[in-house]
């Protein structure tokens, strides 16, 4: 009984870290800048490729993973300066442009680097709880997912960048008039989102074959998590969305099977978006405000 | 100025996206006006590019060899390649283009069973010879359709029998949730029935799924003697590293891995330790027969950058050579005469050994070896099963020389198997 309970909890935590890590970079770019970044998966791919190259150059994983995130950040900033910044405030144009970038990048990787590069070994080994064995690495990913979310909260709450970024998000014209360099804020924010996409790519690459379509696997769930979370409070939205979608997925997957788990998650996302179109974060805010007033 | 640049850039990007979306590699330049045309629809982009690019190379090698030896019927062979983009609809469209615009003499298409059926339907409707050059779920009995890959009676029955004898009767099936995976799972039920096995769990995994925490828990609950894996594509193959890092240590048999995606070369060891695959060909067969060594050497000489020499490459290579032999025997490219030639009992020295194109079923008699992945991911051939005939369709009374069935048989169509499938 206890071992079955732990098995369910492990699957729940596993799903939470998957949703959080794959969505966090997308959430920042969408929430702060209103850009729907369809090339999110390719930023993850940059992280994964870099991690593999650095690791097989002989450096340890704790260097290779940050290297992946940094490379994705640099790549993201170049994209932002050259292309993305020309499409701010144009939701649909930015969608088409980033989608085009996504296709070009994935096929470019295939043509230039080839259909795959060496996969990475998964570190840490396994542990057992009552007849079931589990991967330490998955626990590590869960811890990283929580740490990243906490770090973003602290960054937005306590730093000068955080205040300026939130001001830019609320009212770019006013922030600009008050002396905030909004252009620079956009660039840094896109770079941060890209770095987090790259970090997710690097972490996932330790348990997956790295191919040009690698990142695309995670893009749909990342989008669902972002849309269900909403953009009025990035951190609250990310946490609420990952917790609720994962609960549905874990319960239906263990009770039935993977397909039904996935379908149940999509249906619950559909229902949530239908009734709370601006996302869970705004819903939570409204509820909290109402509680405070009464 | 800024807006006009933006709109121009937008046009450029849209044009680039559009051209990327319909990327087509144009025909390799024809040598003379009169050529015999082989149309290959192979995925050079998308999910299946990794194994399938090598398949196109296999066809190119065979075409180069035949043309260097003077061609066929005084004409050169011409390979027309379209990128199927790992997309079923592209396979349909390009099959139509191959037949109606290019007037191809033969169409070779499809990696997955769904791609194959999309292209094959068009070829059959237009009375054009069609080859599927990959392993498959078998059972297709059709006048115009020919197959070079191993099928269930060659891989699944042999593989399951071997595993039961070596590890015990209890097996857990993980299968991709589409045509190939489902039919392979049915065949596994048949094999379990025939050889005294017991199925203690069965899971169908959606294509594209890459998260296996629940599956790993289910497998540990069921405690099988071995796993049976029909996992397809890069996403599903994440099962191996995930199961390995969770400490799962069951031996496993697969008919998919090694031979297509050469996972043993790409995944860090020991993720695939103790995986068994009954194969017709993988690059390591080059250590087993001189003809396989020659094939691998020639392939690597022509494509020095190739990541691997895989079974689809061998299948396409064999198919082109068998077609060349059939055109020679027929003395013409007339479809009916060429089919008669293909049904006249032609054979070819394939890399793994001699293959015979069975006239009654249009499948190959081929040699099968059991490959076992070692902890360091080297390959050990633990058994040579010798040549295995495509006997199942024949045992159902199929004889394509006499009559065209134009259908796909499933294990459920075989009354002898009914008692195994209801379990």
Comma- or semicolon-separated keywords:
heterodimer, A: 294 residues, mainly alpha, 76% helix, 3% strand, globular, B: 423 residues, 5-stranded parallel beta sheet, 41% helix
Commentary on this structure:
The complex is a heterodimer of chains A (294) and B (423). Chain A has 294 residues and is mostly helical. Chain A has one domain. Chain A has 12 helices and 2 strands, in the order H-H-H-H-E-E-H-H-H-H-H-H-H-H. A two-stranded antiparallel ribbon of chain A has the order 1-2. The longest helix of chain A has 32 residues. By secondary structure, chain B is an alpha/beta fold. In chain B, 41% of the residues lie in helices and 21% in strands. Chain B contains 15 helices and 16 strands. In chain B, the strands form 3 sheets. In chain B, strands 7, 8, 9, 10, 11, 12, 13, 14 and 15 form a 9-stranded mixed β-sheet that branches. In chain B, strands 2-1-3-4-6 form a 5-stranded parallel β-sheet, with helices on both faces. In chain B, a hairpin with a 2-residue loop joins strand 12 and strand 13. In chain B, helix 3 packs parallel to helix 4 and helix 5 packs across helix 6. The longest helix of chain B is centred in the first third of the chain and has 20 residues. The N terminus of chain B is likely disordered. Chains A and B meet through helix 1, helix 4, strand 1, strand 2 and helix 5 of A and helix 1, helix 2, strand 8, helix 7 and helix 9 of B.
């Amino acid at each position: 009984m206890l071992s079955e309970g732990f098995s369910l909890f492990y699957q729940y935590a596993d799903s939470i870290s998957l949703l959080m890590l794959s969505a966090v970079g997308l959430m920042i770019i969408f929430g702060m800048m209103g850009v729907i970044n369809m090339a999110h998966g390719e930023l993850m791919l940059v992280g994964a490729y870099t991690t593999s190259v650095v690791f097989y150059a002989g450096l340890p994983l704790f260097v290779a993973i940050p290297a992946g995130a940094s490379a994705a950040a640099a790549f993201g900033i170049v994209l932002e300066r050259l292309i993305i910044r020309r499409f701010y405030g144009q939701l649909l144009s930015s969608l088409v442009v980033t989608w085009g970038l996504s296709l070009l990048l994935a096929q470019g990787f295939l043509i230039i680097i080839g259909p795959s590069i060496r996969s990475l070994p998964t570190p840490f080994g396994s542990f057992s709880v009552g007849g079931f064995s589990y991967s330490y690495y998955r626990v590590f990913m869960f811890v990283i997912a929580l740490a990243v979310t906490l770090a973003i909260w602290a960054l937005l709450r306590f730093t000068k960048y955080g205040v300026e970024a939130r001001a830019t998000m609320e009212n770019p014209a006013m922030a600009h008039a008050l002396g905030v360099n909004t252009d620079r804020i956009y660039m840094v924010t896109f770079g941060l989102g890209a770095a987090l996409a790259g970090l997710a790519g690097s972490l996932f690459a330790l348990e997956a074959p790295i191919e040009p379509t690698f990142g695309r696997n995670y893009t749909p769930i990342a989008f669902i998590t972002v849309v269900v979370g909403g953009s009025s409070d990035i951190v609250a939205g990310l946490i609420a969305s990952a917790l609720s979608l994962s609960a549905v997925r874990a319960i239906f997957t263990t009770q039935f099977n993977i397909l039904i788990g996935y379908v149940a998650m999509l249906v619950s996302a559909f229902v949530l978006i239908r009734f709370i179109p601006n996302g869970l974060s705004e819903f939570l805010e409204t509820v909290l405000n109402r509680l405070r007033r009464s | 100025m800024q807006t006009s640049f933006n709109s121009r850039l937008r046009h450029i990007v849209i044009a680039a996206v559009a051209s990327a979306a319909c990327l087509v590699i144009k025909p390799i330049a024809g040598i003379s006006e009169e050529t015999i045309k082989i149309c290959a629809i192979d995925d050079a982009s998308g999910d299946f590019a990794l194994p399938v690019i090598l398949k196109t190379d296999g066809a190119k090698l065979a075409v180069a060899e035949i043309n260097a030896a003077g061609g066929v019927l005084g004409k050169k062979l011409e390979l027309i390649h379209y990128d199927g983009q790992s997309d079923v609809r592209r396979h349909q469209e390009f099959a139509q283009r191959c037949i109606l615009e290019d007037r191809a003499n033969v169409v070779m298409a499809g990696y997955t069973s769904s791609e194959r059926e999309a292209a094959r339907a068009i070829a059959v409707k237009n009375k054009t010879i069609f080859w599927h050059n990959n392993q498959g779920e078998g059972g297709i009995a059709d006048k115009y359709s020919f197959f070079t890959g191993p099928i269930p009676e060659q891989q699944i029955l042999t593989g399951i029998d071997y595993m039961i004898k070596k590890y015990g009767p209890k097996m857990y099936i993980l299968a991709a949730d589409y045509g190939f995976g489902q039919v392979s799972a049915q065949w596994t039920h048949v094999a379990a029935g025939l050889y005294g096995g017991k199925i203690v769990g069965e899971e169908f995994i959606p294509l594209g799924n890459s998260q296996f925490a629940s599956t790993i828990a289910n497998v540990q609950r069921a405690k099988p003697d071995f796993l049976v894996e029909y996992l397809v594509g890069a996403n599903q193959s994440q099962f191996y590293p995930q199961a390995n890092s969770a400490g799962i240590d069951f031996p496993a048999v697969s008919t998919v891995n090694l031979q297509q995606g050469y996972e043993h070369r790409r995944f860090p060891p020991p993720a695939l330790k103790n995986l068994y695959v009954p194969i017709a060909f993988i690059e390591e067969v080059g250590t087993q027969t001189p003809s396989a060594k020659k094939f691998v050497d020639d392939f690597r000489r022509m494509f020095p950058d190739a990541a691997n020499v895989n079974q689809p490459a061998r299948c396409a290579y064999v198919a082109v050579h068998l077609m060349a032999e059939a055109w020679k025997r027929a003395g013409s490219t007339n479809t009916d005469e060429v089919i008669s030639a293909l049904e006249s009992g032609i054979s070819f020295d394939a890399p793994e050994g001699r293959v015979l194109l069975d006239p009654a079923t249009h499948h190959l008699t081929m040699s099968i070896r059991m490959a076992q992945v070692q902890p360091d991911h080297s390959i050990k051939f633990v058994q040579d099963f010798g040549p295995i005939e495509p006997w199942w369709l024949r045992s159902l009374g199929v004889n394509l020389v006499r009559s065209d069935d134009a259908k796909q048989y499933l294990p459920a169509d075989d009354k002898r198997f009914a008692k195994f499938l209801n379990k």
